[in-house]
Amino acid sequence: MKSQERISFYNQISGNKIKSFFLIIIIFAVLIALSYVIGLIYSQYFFIILIFGIIISILYVLISYYNSDKIALASVNAREVSYNEARQLHNSVEGLCLASGLPKPRIYVMPGEQINAFASGRNPEHSVVCVTEGALKKLSKQELEGVIAHELSHIANYDIRFMTLAAVMVGMIAIISQIFLRSMWFSSGRDRDKNNAVLIIIGIVLAILAPIVVQLVQLTISRKREYAADASSVKFTRSPTGLISALRKIRGDKTELKVSGALAPLFMSDIKRRDLSELFATHPSIEKRIEILERM
Amino acid sequence: MVILGLVLWMWIVIVVIAILLFMLIYYFNKFVILSNRIDNSLAQIDVQLKKRADLVPNLVEAVKGYMKHERGVFSDIAKARAAMLSAPDLAGRVKAGNELQNALKSIFALSERYPKLKANENFLQLQQELSAIEDKVAYSRQYYNDNLLSYNTSCTTFPGNLFAGIFGRNVKPYLEIPLEEKAVPKVSF
């Protein structure tokens, strides 16, 4: 056990935000470094391909960014619930919106026995909150409020926008690396000279390592945002007990959600039982989250 | 050298002015946004109290048929509701609203004795609604506290205090709003 001092949710929120800001700077720096080295090796024609690749990837991301909520909701078969269908849920969301100053998001319920939830939408005005049927059935009012507050925190912290930005840069690095490595494969020795040999080796090493490194950084950012959302949830509900007890129930829940793995980072907690190490996970382990919440 | 020095000085002055201008705008907006939020959270408390008062006649209507012998409670409710609607300021409305809520709670406590009423869908919905309103008043109050705290903090800490002086912003007093009573009210049987 590390230090057991109390932590304030204000420090927890701002600390995690600062950390994720610096992490995104790291990704940006890798992007610049990679482009610079490749720029030293090649002349213009490479950039034409590169620019095409980047434009296409940006378009792709922008489209999914503007439709993030619709895509996510459609792929999990979520349906919007009216006030009369789910009064408790609506009242909890309305109350927490008053506590956080957010406009009321649209509320969806998705099939599935697992206790889980996600939020989506590019800004608070276009946000949605979706909970599973399992969460509605298995969680008490206080636990459900802890979970909803966690999701509203993602909306309030603009996490969807932030993670999209990270994804764009990580995607760009992957594309640049791929194009570079493939061009190395096909080009013969004619346009290389000896001065370039060292640079080319640096370029290849960078192109192989950069995508892996930035992806790990991206996952670290995602975990920091989860901690920040947990802390904001405590700020909105003024008590960690609901979220802690919900997380305990989630830990004890043996069911899995049948949704595409691509949606996994969106959710409140892992959709499958965890079998990877922390390093490769989008979420911190439930044990760690509970431990930090208990100290607030 | 002299010319170079002059250009350098010009740049420094420009940068400093730009930073100052930026901070001026930033703090101006910050004060406006925070005081809007403060006003809005108080307005929200009012909205919830109004909703509570609006629901009361429905509740009385739903309950009256079952509780014929509890006239005292109904007159308490009517009194508290009238007091709430006529209170001149927010603190008064909140206080009367609390009394109203307490009177309503005695209805809910009494309802335990009427199994038929407890099974009435309409009654259950109203009960849930009124307890949600109680939560919402508490959450609005919390949002008010949060924003008042950050408003007053930016008014008193450096460099916010300088800008607060420029814009004529002062520390806002904490509004004494009577707390919603969370305790179960005493009901004499």
Question: How would you describe this structure to a colleague?
Answer:
- The complex is a heterodimer of chains A (296) and B (189).
- Chain A has 296 residues and is mainly α.
- Chain A has one domain (1-185, 204-296).
- Chain A has helices spanning 9-41, 44-66, 68-75, 87-100, 133-138, 141-156, 159-186, 194-237, 241-252, 286-294, and strands at 79-80, 106-110, 117-120, 128-132.
- Chain A has a four-stranded mixed beta sheet with strand order 1-2-4-3, with helices on both faces.
- In chain A, helix 6 (141-156) packs across helix 8.
- The two termini of chain A are 16 Å apart.
- The model of chain A has no long low-confidence stretch (mean pLDDT 81).
- Chain B contains six helices and no strands.
- Helix content of chain B is 78%, strand content 0%.
- Chain B has one domain (32-167).
- Chain B has helices at residues 2-64, 71-86, 90-110, 115-118, 121-156, 160-167.
- The longest helix of chain B has 63 residues, at 2-64.
- Chain B has 189 residues and is mostly helical.
- The chains are: A mainly alpha (296), B mainly alpha (189).
- At the A-B interface, helix 4 of A face helix 1 and helix 5 of B.
Spell out the blueprint of helices and strands.
The complex is a heterodimer of chains A (296) and B (189).
Chain A: H1 9-41, H2 44-66, H3 68-75, E1 79-80, H4 87-100, E2 106-110, E3 117-120, E4 128-132, H5 133-138, H6 141-156, H7 159-186, H8 194-237, H9 241-252, H10 286-294
Parallel strand pairs in A: 2-4
Antiparallel strand pairs in A: 1-2, 3-4
Chain B: H1 2-64, H2 71-86, H3 90-110, H4 115-118, H5 121-156, H6 160-167
